[in-house]
Amino acid sequence: MIPQTWTFPLGGGAISDEFALTFARQREYRLLIVPALFDEANRMRRLTVEVMRRLDAAGIDSVLPDLPGCNDSLLPLASLAPVDWLDAMAVAARHFGATHVLGIRGGGLLTPAGLPCWHYAPVKGASVVRQMVRARILASREAGREENHDDLLAQARDEGAELAGYSLSADFIRQFESLAPQSESVSRIDQDMVGGSGLWLRAEPGESRAQADALAAILAIGMKA
Amino acid sequence: MSARTETDRLLRAILGDVLGLKTDQADGFTARTGLFGHLPELDSMAVAGLLTEMEDRLDIVIDDDEIDGELLESYGALLAFAEAKRTRE
């Protein structure tokens, strides 16, 4: 497993070096993984990397780029919109010569078109926002501040907001809410195919060898078919 | 062993998934088992996830205004809320 950088063009000639975890040995099959989003990214990272290890052992390259503004990225998230994330994932797919792509949970909203694609337990943008607004209301209530879902959402769409620790612009919220995973020419992997309960539900990041085995097997068989 | 309602069984399964418990651990929950404020891993993000999962699996809609500290205080309170929601909807 090697950390590598790739270049994300910001427009106006500016660039940002972004980080990716890779198992890249120029093999025939190369999978780009668009990670789960926000809080779920932390809870799903261990499983994601365990799947990459298994694919490596099966002779398949894989790459897990950071979404600009998240994880180790130096870009401020509040300066970005989902369209930037879509561009970034398309750039990463080209940079690493991906032959296939997997989107995990909300990552399924950002998978580049034109490559054979899987979505693992995909979720709509609006559901992600709803849950983040709910988390903010709960945290505020604990701190003795009352907030209301509709008002907070309206404010987020107008001015942007900090939700669950993430600073999101108004453009971000508005675009992101309208995103839904494509179903055309995408193979969907539901949790019952993987077994057990989804690790994104866990209050604390967990892991599951059995789930990593199952996901890697589904992907390896699909890629080599 | 007394018969559990469907809501009770589903709610235990959801809590088990959120807390990463083995089946028999969630089975041991009583009405008085403490939740929010008693289990450090149940922070606001985890509770938001728990409520969303309850909506999906119990086929209910939870208004954020309905969520207060008492509701999440104990397993019994959460179950009573879920039972009442499912009867109404």
What is the topological layout?
The complex is a heterodimer of chains A (225) and B (89).
Chain A: E1 2-11, E2 14-23, E3 30-34, H1 39-57, E4 61-65, H2 82-95, E5 100-104, E6 117-120, H3 125-142, H4 149-159, E7 161-163, E8 166-168, H5 170-177, E9 186-189, H6 191-194, H7 209-224
Helix pairs in contact in A: 1-7, 4-5
Chain B: H1 6-19, H2 23-27, H3 44-58, H4 75-88
Helix pairs in contact in B: 1-3
Q: What is the tally of helical segments of chain A?
A: 7
DSSP helix fraction of chain B: 40-55%
Order of strands in the sheet with most strands of chain A: 1-2-4-3-5-6-9
Overall mean pLDDT of chain A:
95
> What is the ordering of alpha helices and beta strands of chain A?
EEEHEHEEHHEEHEHH
User: How would you describe the shape of chain A?
Assistant: globular
Radius of gyration of chain B: 12 Å
> Class by helix and strand content of chain B?
mainly alpha
Q: First CA to last CA of chain B: what distance? A: 29 Å
Chain pair with largest interface: A-B, 25 and 24 residues
Specify Rg of chain A, calculated over alpha carbons.
18 Å
Number of helices of chain B: 4
Name the quaternary structure: heterodimer
Mean pLDDT of chain B equals: 88
Distance between the termini of chain A: 25 Å
Number of strands of chain A: 9
Considering the chains and any ligands shown, give keywords for the structure.
heterodimer; A: alpha/beta; seven-stranded mixed sheet; two-stranded antiparallel ribbon; globular; B: 89 residues; mainly alpha; 4 helices
Q: Your description of this structure?
A:
The complex is a heterodimer of chains A (225) and B (89). Chain A has 225 residues and is of the alpha/beta class. Chain A has helices at 39-57, 82-95, 125-142, 149-159, 170-177, 191-194, 209-224, and strands at residues 2-11, 14-23, 30-34, 61-65, 100-104, 117-120, 161-163, 166-168, 186-189. In chain A, strands 1-2-4-3-5-6-9 form a seven-stranded mixed sheet, sandwiched between helices. In chain A, strands 7-8 form a two-stranded antiparallel ribbon. With 89 residues, chain B is mostly helical. Chain B contains four helices and no strands. Chain B has helices at residues 6-19, 23-27, 44-58, 75-88. Chain B starts with 5 loop residues before the first helix and ends with a helix. Chains A and B meet through helix 3 of A and helix 1 and helix 3 of B.
